[in-house]
User: What shape does this take?
Amino acid sequence: MKIRFFMAAVLSAVLFASCESDNEINEIPEEELGNYSEGVFVLNEGNFGSGNSSVSYLDPDLEEIQNNIYAEENNGESPGDTGQSIGFYGDYAFIVMNVSGKIQVVDRHTFENITTIESGLDNPRFIDFSNEKAFVTNWGDGTDPDDDFVAVYDLGNFELEETIPVEEGPEKILTVNDKIYVAHKGGFGFNNTISVLDPNINIIEKTIEVGDVPNSMVSNGNSLWVLSSGLPSYAENETAGKITEIDLTIQEVVQEFEFNEKEHPGNLNLDEQVLYYTLDDTVYTLGQGEESLPDSGITNFSDEGILYGFEVAEGKIYASFVNYDFTGNGKLIIKDNTGNLIDEFDTGINPNGIYIVE
Assistant: This one.
């Protein structure tokens, strides 16, 4: 009996050791995607005509910033002249270069360049995605109101598929509920419309009038909120800004909030069903169901420079600033939604866009 018990114990130990060894052998280490899989990206447009655009990266813990990551990962090269915007899709990041007239496609995890899109672009502005395609707004010649378009690219081969003529000054572009919405700011002129594009057939199916010079859009899936800055003081007839709500089930304007005379807001964002917008150097909020614009803001950024980029996520406000003469490095300032400072960081030259990737 003792011998049988001893042999059983030995066999069990051998089997246990074998299973443990197999588990160790069969364990597959988690794939290392790259250094930039998640975090905060800042696009620095650089100086016009200088070809010194760059990208800054802030780690997810908001502790350390790295400037010039594109150059670091691509043999010291700049992405090009005047970085306009970045779009993230799948494993790719698309850096739209306005003056260079090209798009740098990089691996979003490593930021190594994959390819450069140069065909079909003329004064490109912003990018969004639908149906495995990229849609890019283009002003064309800013003095010509009739040559503006949206360029469509196949993301399987990054080739131009077609161009869609649109109204003057297509700027921000946003995909919601299988429709694409294009804000027409006006190019070198002024405009006041939102185009509704069907990405299944690449046709503009409707145009919706909003406030003058729509500069940003956000959506909660049911409504599209559009912030318009209004015609500036140097226009023939100055107008105040507006926040417009479009019901996406009927594609019609259902609510408008008009600013006071000579007020020109910018930078609309949405976080936890609360709208955040900027007016001069102050951040304001507008909650769902409120019937009028607030009298006071939640925080301001006085004497920081010109507020140039703005994003809100998970109760944190991210704002980037350029120097008043648009030279030298800018800064990124992070606050909580009560206005308390979290931290601030130096960026590259003229940081114009903030992108939070999780």
User: Anything to note?
Assistant: The helical segments are 2-26, 69-73. The radius of gyration is 25 Å. The longest helix spans residues 2-26. Residues 284 and 297 are 4 Å apart (CA to CA).
